[in-house]
From TrEMBL:
Residues 61-139 form the Pirin N-terminal domain. It comes from the Bacteria. It comes from Marinomonas communis. This is Pirin. Belongs to the pirin family. Residues 213-313 form the Pirin C-terminal domain. InterPro entries: Pirin, Pirin_C_dom, Pirin_N_dom, RmlC-like_jellyroll, RmlC_Cupin_sf.
Length: 345
């Protein structure tokens, strides 16, 4: 009998992905108390400021110098899906859009023909640590959509579907549905919020799914079968051990599984957490250089030229590492001036 596991992959900060996904980063930083200016109340001595990925003391400054994160940088030709399980992100972009999101929110940004944005991690609490846990997933765009207008969308935690199912022993599994419909064992259909209109995920035939699955100790859960021909990967990012159809699996590994087969998952350790990335391959040539993902070398060269000439609309903000103050709550300001908060959707 063929194993349900087609491939096993080790995990570090940057996770291996399959078409239509390009990249997945897992940021898990135990930031200290804030210093009142949204940075860490700790010495930065010994860190490679501007390129701090070492994880000293359990956290990183990344490309930030005062506030951790990623100051203004460009993208073209794909989408970023940023799912923040814990902590906050301050967003600003060349369209004039901005936001502070986190605590379960997802930002879905279609770069399309080009956008600059910054992603800073404000340490808003001065009286306690500021841990952050997030996934940033890069989802490719097909050739026909690579030059669409940029699009910025917020999927607030309060509106994102989460369902809990029980196994025969009463143990529970929670499934958070960021993208892709989930059919529960009882037949309930859990539908996600709508992805951006030009996304590969916007066509249901592409079967794009992004789920976060939490199994309590000793829980069993079945990943339902999907269509044939999909790339389907489960990332085991927290917990200890388990089984897929009786085969042993361990934390800090990814498992590529057959998309048209159901997978019986049993957690044999502490709380187990998985990220599911699934989708129909775009199956087009990929030429990538840093933040630009196109189909041909010539298109890549054009992307660099266009950015040099236009800066993708320029940078309308005061700082390249723009943040939104100490007292701001979660919000989104869109390019058309509309302002939205989680409770106003």
């Amino acid at each position: 009998m063929t194993s349900v596991i087609k491939q096993r992959l080790k995990l570090d900060m940057f996770w291996p992905t399959l078409d239509p996904f390009l990249f997945c980063a897992f940021h898990n930083d135990r930031f200290p108390k804030g210093n009142g200016a949204l940075g860490p109340s700790a010495s930065l001595a010994g860190r490679n400021i501007g390129q701090d990925f070492a994880g000293m003391d359990g956290w990183r400054m990344y490309h930030g110098s005062k506030v951790p994160g990623f100051p203004a940088h460009p993208h073209r030709g794909f989408e970023t899906v940023t799912i923040v399980n814990e902590g906050f992100v301050d967003h600003a972009d060349s369209m004039g859009a901005a936001g502070r999101y986190g605590q379960g929110d997802t930002q879905w940004m279609t770069a399309g023909k080009g956008v600059q944005h910054s992603e800073m991690f404000p340490l808003v609490f001065e009286d306690k640590p500021n841990p952050i846990e997030l996934f940033q997933v890069w989802l490719n765009l097909p050739a026909k959509n690579k030059m669409v207008e940029p699009h910025f969308a917020m999927l607030w935690n309060e509106q994102t579907p989460v369902t809990t199912v029980k196994d025969e022993s009463g143990h529970t599994t929670q499934v958070k549905v960021v993208a892709g419909t989930y059919h529960t064992p009882s037949g309930e259909v859990i539908s996600p919020l709508a992805p951006p209109p030009d996304s590969w995920a916007a066509d249901a035939n592409n079967d794009v799914a992004i789920w976060i699955v939490d199994l309590e100790p000793n829980a069993s859960w079945t990943l339902p079968a999907a269509s044939a021909g999909l790339n389907r990967t489960l990332y085991f990012f927290e917990g200890e051990s388990g089984t897929f159809d009786g085969l042993k699996v361990a934390v800090q590994e990814a498992y590529v599984v057959d998309s048209q087969s159901a997978v019986d998952i049993h957690n044999t350790g502490s709380k187990a957490r998985f990220l599911l990335l699934q989708g129909r391959p775009i199956s087009e040539p990929v030429q990538q250089h840093g933040p630009f993902v196109m189909n041909t070398r010539q298109e890549l060269q054009q992307a660099f030229y266009d950015y040099q000439q236009t800066q993708f609309g320029g940078w309308p903000w005061q700082a390249s590492d723009q943040t939104h103050g100490n007292d701001k709550g979660r919000f989104a300001k869109y390019a058309d001036g509309k302002v939205e908060e989680p409770g106003t959707v």
